[in-house]
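Tutorial, part two.
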Amino acid sequence: MRKLGLIAGGGTLPLEIAEHCAQAGRAVFIARLKGFARPELNRFPGVDVGLAEIGKTIKALKRAGCQAVCLVGNVSRPDFKTLKPDLRGLALLPAIIAAARHGDDALLRVVLNEFAKEGFVIEGAHEAKSDLTLAKGPLGAVSPGSEHQGDIDRALLVAREIGRLDVGQGAVVCDGLVLAVEAQEGTDAMLRRVAHEIPTAIRGTPGAYRGVLAKAPKPIQETRIDLPTIGLATVQRAAAAGLAGIVGEAGRLLVLDREAVIELADELGLFIFGVEP
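Running the prediction step on this input gives:
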């Protein structure tokens, strides 16, 4: 197995992958992004790096003997004026800023290519830990009924369409009505908006669930670094918004804290369902 260089942003996913590597006997070295990476990652070999310290990151990964690189975790789009790049980051900054005008996917590709040019094999989170993605069919004991199929189809259609425009990855539909689409605020904020700002007359409520959250990757997406993701918070907020379930494309949706997610969804009576891409 290639030694893995894990460039870690926020959230639990970097920790899941690091722990998986340790259990599998795979050597791992973590570049912890300052202001984003969780402190639990400090117990693994690694280094703290700034968001624009591209040169420092590459040198550290090479010194550690890493052959593969995996970029994972939440990173909010920075204010480019406040970045403190090293020399390599400074040289790359104009290309990053230009790419950012075309969306997050274009920006990520520029960064990814910089590591690929140095000879690193780029791995997606789902490649570093193969059981992360949603499989086809129900995840857990609850399955969608025939009454949910129209909302599933429409929510996926809307999610894919906003993805085509590089707007976001998620959409909420109830009884055929589009209640919300995800943009830069993210899925959790979108679900909070549904729960607190959408009238209960046109959405479900806890105990009387209706509607669906769908998440799908953008057609132009670099799936090795930015697959759609759900976790415990997604299930909790979907339930609070009165939704009957969550759907995604099999093999193209990451599920964090899988066992806990299944337990919570079953307890709440929500379905999580994978469809063919």
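The CA atoms of residues 30 and 44 lie 7 Å apart. In part three we will examine how such features are distributed along the chain.
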